[in-house]
Design goal:
two-stranded antiparallel sheet; 6 helices; binds zinc ion; Rossmann fold; 283 residues
Length: 283
């Protein structure tokens, strides 16, 4: 399906490995959840978008995409641009992401849940942007208001350990990290994954709030004994419905029209209007 109109939606979900194994949100029996359209692909300036699902939670409209829009034959940078360009056209104001991560902090166990409040970008994809019109201030990059709602919904649905702050280190992947890389990160970050950047920059660029729910699926190399791939897939399958419920609960409890956060004001018009396509905004 191409050349179809992008539906208006205040909310978006960037699905990761947490909801991938489930038919989210069709797998959730809540009566206020209705699938409105499926397998929507849009033409974007960065190529055809991945498939979106459009659904409602009560009166609220939501666009969701699987696995960050990543797919073979498309660079992750382009996939992210296609996804966030679509969100901007839809008028999205609140974005929730989720995903499995590795541990860096030695106190973490498998299947701990973390709602990070900061990130450390070690990826080389820092220049992924839409049109570069804005200088992006990355204070409170993970929206405090959206995080608070995610934390409340997670506490309601999950009986295990929940960490209400932490730093997410971003690497490029697709490979995991070496023991030396994990050792270097220790003391600077708590978890490691591959998705929070560039999504966090693109969300700020479109003026949307962004926050995420992450759960540990493997130990960083060198942290402790070898981890098993079996544990990791168990977590993905067992927890998918719960993660979906937490996200829907968050959407029910957070407003899109009234935002009590600074997210929108933390993007500033760049002073480098004529050169922004070729230049960074600092340096
Ligand atoms: Zn916000």
């Amino acid at each position: 399906m191409t050349d179809i109109k992008i539906p208006a939606a205040d909310y978006a979900i960037v699905g990761g490995s947490g909801t991938l194994s489930s038919d989210f949100p069709a797998n959730i029996p809540d009566i206020d959840v209705k699938i409105l359209a499926d397998n929507l692909r849009f033409e974007t300036p960065y190529g055809q978008s991945p498939a979106f699902r459009f659904f409602s939670v009560g009166e609220k409209k939501v666009l969701t995409v699987k696995m960050h829009g990543w797919r073979s034959g498309v660079t992750r940078a382009d996939a992210s641009r296609q996804v966030f360009w679509t969100f901007r056209e839809a008028g999205v104001k609140r974005i929730i992401s989720e995903g499995g991560v590795g541990t860096v902090n030695k106190l973490l166990d498998l299947r701990d849940f973390i709602i990070p409040d900061d990130y450390l970008d070690l990826s080389v994809r820092k220049d992924v942007m839409l049109d570069g019109r804005y200088l992006l201030v990355m204070r409170d990059a993970l929206c405090p208001e959206l995080r608070e709602a995610l934390i409340a919904a997670t506490k309601k649905r999950f009986a295990g350990r929940i960490f209400t702050r932490g730093t997410y280190a971003v690497t490029d992947g697709r490979h995991f990290e070496s023991p030396a890389e994990i050792a270097m990160l220790n003391g600077h970050a708590d978890i490691v994954g591959q998705s929070i950047a560039p999504e966090v920059y693109l969300a700020r660029e479109i003026g949307a709030c962004y926050a995420g729910l992450y759960f540990t699926v493997n130990y960083g190399e060198g942290i402790r004994e070898k981890w098993s791939h079996h544990d990791m897939s168990d977590i993905f399958y067992d927890d998918a419905p719960m993660i979906g419920q937490i996200i829907l609960e968050t959407i029910r409890n957070v407003d899109a029209e009234e935002r009590n956060c600074e997210c929108l004001s933390l993007r500033k018009e760049t002073l480098l209007k004529d050169v922004y396509n070729e230049s960074s905004s600092k340096g």
